[in-house]
Amino acid sequence: MQRNRPLRSEKLTTSTSLAAEAAARDGSAAGRFWIACQEEAVFALYTPFMVCLAAGKLGLDVFRNYIAQNARLLKAFAQAYQMAEGYADDDESKAVFKQLRISVLKRLTMNDSVSREWGIATRQEVIPNSATLKYTEFLLETAAGKIEGGKGSLLIDTPFEKTRITAYTVGAMTPFTRLVAYLAKELHFHLKHKGNDHPCKKWIDIYASASFEASAVQIEQLLDKLSVSLTSEELAIVEKLYRQAMKHEIEFYSSLPIVQPALVPLMKVHDLTHHLVIFSDFDLTCTVIDSSATLAEISISISSRASPSGTDDDNQNAQVSSSDVRSAWDAIAKLYTEEFGQCIKSIVPSEQDAAKTLDYESLYNKLEQISVFEKRANSRVIESGLLKGISLEDIKRVGELLVLQDGCKDFFQESVKMKEKFNADFHILSCCWCADLMRSAFSSVGCLNALNIHSNEFIYEESISTGEFVRTIESPTDNVETFRNILANLGSSKQPLSVFIGDSIGDLLCLLEADVGIIIGSNSSLRKVGEQFGVSFVPLYSGLIKKQSEVAGEDSLVWKGLSGVLYTASSWTEIHAFLFGA
């Protein structure tokens, strides 16, 4: 039985990523490298500097420092382009390097022009910070043939060696232009509603322009051209350099100091003032497949296991039994889907106007209908006996193989460190029938000890399921009662700041009561019910920018439960960047 699998929400990335995906399908090395670095790109977008820049909250001194640090990078790029031009073995590549170097020099001039409009003295010397120094050293050492992590320097004597070092150099330089184009386009997209009021609009417009995108495409095409003649080992080195450059980019943006209070990363910002409590659903929030479907497959699998000493007739009967079990599960799933659809229709009648603001009390009362339905559906499963005979060993084995959503594993592995460093609490709340399946999934990725799991529990006799389970959390109302009890019994002197991550109607009440409710994907039923009762759905980054613009001071708390606003995230990586940072 699979419960309303969510439709994926619109990705955070713009047309830049779509173009890269198309290029990668056509065999582009640059496109493939960029797609592999999407997580790093999201982390850069969620740095305090970028969030404050997007919100229009950067002071002149902060912006001047950024321009000065960026100018250091641009000068290093111009020097590296000049070195690469000297290595190039054909006139076309030499011309491209020359154009790229001229483009960088024009950007340096543009820096001065825009800065003068802001009344910023760009000629004033600024000491490069450690991130800027590391990045420039990485670029120039790569261009000189000294590959980071390699043994000594490459000898740049033969045409072959010159071609190879040119490819390495371009691999290390390409991420800068592509990432800047991506960041500018993301900011440009999210700032449309501000019109011309944003103080950095001209700056953002320049880097979101078609001409800057053309520069990014130009160096990517050059990287593709140079990669054709490389061996697989050499191409792996180019990709390694590309990823190292992306890490330097993140460190660069993370190192830029800001004077105003920032809202990211949430974990660090509120460490001293609040007790952070992070909740997450499990099915289809963490996993790709609903656990009820997984348990059904285990049930079908064990019914088809024939005894090693059995006769052909025995094996034939076992196969018939397997077919019968699958048919029984299909019937249960079909009935569940039909009754769920009827519930949604009764909750959201077509003739009733939607509420303009959050009507939580009415929503809660309506979701009690879902609670009755879910409990009836669970009783049907127990009475069928289909879960009987599943061994704890089978559950653990299958749990270890559960496929998690992209970025989910990294998020919860990081939660282990965050729990120790910031004394935060992490809870999994789920209507899953079998908590052991969840424990096995999280144990396999090394983060079980950091999590508190709240769910239903299989009942066993000698490690074999009886077909029944302890029914603790079966519905939206059960879910929210568990949520409230956890917060009420924290035993902390600090005020709790709660985050709930979910994907379905079963999570809706918790999502709304949490200070920050984040939805993975876009479940059509969740959105339909939410909008009927006045819930607004806002992309996480857009909401963050708006909240950042509202920050009044160090003690300003802009996140609050029952606001009626839920935030949509395209991936666990985005949530990771928002909560934990890079």
TrEMBL record:
Signal peptide: none annotated. GO terms for cellular component: cytosol. This is Thiaminase-2/PQQC domain-containing protein. It comes from Zingiber officinale (Ginger). Gene3D superfamilies: HAD superfamily/HAD-like, Heme oxygenase-like. SUPFAM superfamilies: HAD-like, Heme oxygenase-like. InterPro entries: HAD-like_sf, HAD_sf, Haem_Oase-like_multi-hlx, Thiamine_Salvage_TenA.
